[in-house]
Amino acid sequence: MPPRNFSLDLGRTSNYICKSCLAHLRPVNSQPPQWLTRQASTARSLRSRTRRPATELKEKDPDPAEIQRMLAEDLFNGSEAKSNLDIKYYSENIKTGERKPLQTNEEFGEESAGLDHEVLSSIEDLERRMLDTLKMINSMEKEGKKEKAAQLRKQFKTTIRTQFRGKMGPEGEAYGVLRIRGSFSGSKARAVQELNHFLARDKVVEGGIPTHRDLAECWKYYSSARKILATNWKSVPREVWDFLFMVLSYDSRDNPNRMQHIYVLAKDMQAAQVPLNDAQQLLAIEAMFIEGWEPEAIDAWKRAVVTIGSNRETFKPYYELGVRMCALHGDTERAQQAADTLLKSSHPPNPRIIIPIVRALAAKKSLLDEAWERYRDMRTLLGDSMTLEDYDEIIGSFLTVGAVEQALQAFVDMMFSGAIDIRGRTRLPMVVGNHFFTGKWLKRLIGAGDLDGAYKVAVFLQSKGITASPVQLNGLVAAWMRSGAAENLEKADKLAWQMIQARLDFVELRQRQSVMKGNLTLYSPDEAPNLKDKEQEGDEAEFKCLTRATAETFSILAENYCSRRLHSRLQELFEVLKLAEIGPTTFLMNQLIRSHSQAGEAKKVLNLYNKMTQELGIQPDGHTFLTMFNSLSVNRLIQRVPSLSEQDVTASRKFFKDMVEAKWEFDTPELFAQLPRTIIFSMFKAKDWVGAIVACRAMRQIFGFHPTDALLVELVSGIGSLQVKTKRNTLRLTEGSRIIEQLKHAHRKRLIAQGHPGEEMTPEELVEENHALFDQIVFMKAKVHQVVIADLNEWIGEVSREMGVYDIVVKGDQEAISKYMKLDRQAIMDMESK
């Protein structure tokens, strides 16, 4: 582009043409290179014929007079009119406003590039000499003068790093000084400068291993500079292309878009007419295939058989790539030919290249036997070196297409080294057809995440007379539900209710047997498949699960329905639970209570709790009481209702009494952290101040609970959770922290007045301090400024009797404390450490 300040003189003529105009001229007869590209549409082809890239300029500039004539003909649509247009360029000093005419091309180049002609010439000369030096060193190494070459290389490297900030590549000077030469103007010229700054860093790639930052910034700067570089691809040296290819093609988890970047970079190198070496071409072909140009990639691979395929260094990766691409594309015949060529060559064979072929053949039912034979060939070639991962690949290939028998045979080969053949048998041999063996396979499939494959195995095994155990199917149902996908939730729900139906059928048969006095025979699970309709046998679409549901099945469904707030389905589940003659468990009770609480049915929560604990004799646990405290109105409603809060005081004290008297223990660190905190906050919200003091002192004895500094700040601030990050809460937390510091200061002054040395406090003294601060916070919240000890003890005595902890809080009876202890001391320490 010309400088911004110029003037038009229509009275003179000149043969001078600016470089910007020269850069946009197109040669008449030039065809774009065809490589790694699809055939464009007709409209796009027409556009490409009229818009030729700037890279197709001739080596030698045409005669200026000829250019002037061409421009005149173009401007006047071929008329014979002569152009009197003359353009003069000026450089304006922004501060003084003085204009200086530009007389020569050198002056124009200085103003465009921002550097004078001498500086540009010096830079180019320096780069040329440095590259010549590198070539000389490489030649010396080839001639055998390695010691002298190494000495010169070390000296050259030190000079460059100390005097010039030039990037040298991963191992030193292999790529030369990386810099994009040439001058660029316009709004996007800055992108080239940023790319040069990236290339000129001292440590872009250290030891040949790009970091995550290197990979991200390399693509960032290059993608930003692509458009401006496309106007002059010749300004990008080959060393820069190789370095960019090396970085962007680095195989790492930190480079997830590796193939897409290789594809774009290869297209740009093709546009710049920079030939790719054999290794780069292989990566480019693979990138083209992955980016969706499958037929074009395979055609490019075929054409490269004479060049890349005959090169000893690229022979093996060339044919391995061909096997993978042809197998994925469905051309199994060509894939097998490529694999046979590779395995019969003098190169060390890698029989695992057969795995993609097995997968491709198994996808076609007509070629299933051939897929099995290829697996046998691979197994023979690998021998004892065949790993569990290899078997998993083969098993997954057969399970994906529903070939369960072949998959089971491969699993049997893995377990028994190919000594047993089960294919084609109506019933499986005892060593295979048992719950232990098949259970191990189902467990392995579920653990690997192949849930659909595990279901197909369960259906196949039942057709062979083996019903899957409830433990395995419960695991499959739970895994489906954990995935969260709508399709998997539907599959899990269907299978679980089939298991429940099998349980109901069994209960009905048992009831009929008792009525008919032994004239009806109950079948065992292994004999149950004989009851199936012959027409439905082996039909997965009409599969009827014969594995009976257990309490775990109901628990899995209950937890899922509760978390998804399907209250009606949960009630239906409990109604069926009675018909299935499975007693309700504590877990099921907790889920139903939680569901009623979520639905806002507080009365039903209390009635259900009383009914199940008193009438049905279900023993509650810590999770039950956590759910009950969360069901209080102060924890459910945003706006407090005084009448409900009064009811919450009575209810919370009753829950606390039941919690102390019930026989249970903490089973998770989460429960150990949540339950005491929920109890304290519930009583604070209900303004049961004495109850909060009693609860804190009781939980200290039977839970090993001690209020932390964070909890004290929350109690003072009135914030339910430190996780809520708002401006208002931040101010409240700051004020709360200030109040706690003041209370601690006052408490320690009192200790010093009582004779404490005033040195650093012991852990036991810190615990006592926090309990004392807790009581002071309660007094502050209750707005009690002066507390009479006698009155306080009287209140605590009355409330502790109501909460069932009088012997623990008031008397300090060690026998009572040991009786109601919910966690031993060592377990408390372990959970606190977690």
How do the strands line up in the largest sheet? 1-2-3
Largest sheet: 3 strands, antiparallel
Number of helices, where a helix is a run of at least 4 consecutive DSSP H or I residues: 38
- Going by helix content, strand content and strand pairing, the class is mainly alpha
Radius of gyration: 41 Å
Mean pLDDT reading: 78
Morphology call: flat
- What is the tally of beta strands? 3
- Uncertain residue ranges: 1-17, 19-85, 160-176, 524-541
First-last Cα distance = 67 Å
Helix content: 55-70%
Strand content: under 5%
Walk me through this protein's architecture:
With 834 residues, the chain is mostly helical. Among the domains are: 6-113, no CATH class; 117-163; 620-833, no CATH class. The protein is 61% helix and 2% strand. The chain contains 38 helices and three strands. It has a three-stranded antiparallel sheet with strand order 1-2-3, with no helix packed on it. Strand 2 and strand 3 (99-101) form a beta hairpin. Helix 15 (355-362) packs antiparallel against helix 16 (368-382), helix 21 (470-483) runs antiparallel to helix 22 and helix 27 packs parallel to helix 30 (669-685). The longest helix is centred in the middle third of the chain and has 31 residues, at 486-516. The chain is flat and about 100 Å long. The two termini are 67 Å apart. Mean pLDDT is 78; it is low at 1-17, 19-85, 160-176 and 524-541.
List the keywords.
3 strands, 38 helices, 3-stranded antiparallel sheet, 834 residues, 61% helix
